[in-house]
Amino acid sequence: MYLTLKGKEHQIPVLMNAVKQQERYVCVMVQMKVRDEYENELLMARRRAERILHDTDEANKKLQELLKEVEEKQQELLDLNKDLQDLALTDPLTGLKNRRYLQDKIMEFIELAKSSENEMFSLLLIDVDHFKEVNDTHGHPMGDAVLRELSWKLLRETRDHDIVARVGGEEFMILLPNRNEESARVIAERIRLNVDHGPWAQKRVTVSIGVTSYKFGDTPSSLYAKADQALYISKNAGRNRVSVS
What we know:
By secondary structure, the protein is α+β, with helices and mostly antiparallel strands. The chain has 6 helices and 9 strands. The chain folds into 2 domains: about 1-40, no CATH class; about 95-245, 2-Layer Sandwich (Alpha-Beta Plaits).
């Protein structure tokens, strides 16, 4: 209830609340000025609280944005590291895996073969016949084009889980999981025929191939030596052929 009390010097506006307690009324009067100040303080406190909540929400929002940005940067860094690792294991000219990658994989397959009698794999060592003449006669750009085209042919003749790698200037090696020596020889002969008689966008070449298969006790070095010996036999016999060691 709004009342005006008469003071000595002026009237005093007040608000009065009355509550009935035990058959009598208890009245509370608050001077309007005091109430106004109290309400203003409450209002200011509420506004400060709302501002703090708003600032907190903004801070949380910015924090979430920063966390998201950090996560994105971390993923970019992981992707970049993976790209760098891939580059370190990839031949830049052909896009095939390189010798380092192949050596690691051969070691993995040797360990698998040691632990299981059913695990087997074979290797094909492939060399472009008379490649030096291609470079000397037609230039290195033509030689590079021939190597790239040969790499595509090798990929077309192999399975997705076979590993085709460039291991030297004009040397390629193919790791054939779950292939015995005879099966690997058939694949090598198919590759040789495709290279010899298939279409070429650039200069036609032939290849010599050495075939070997894992035997218990072999190491990466001994496997490469056996494949190299088979390749030497092919080249010594006139090139453009497949030999097994």
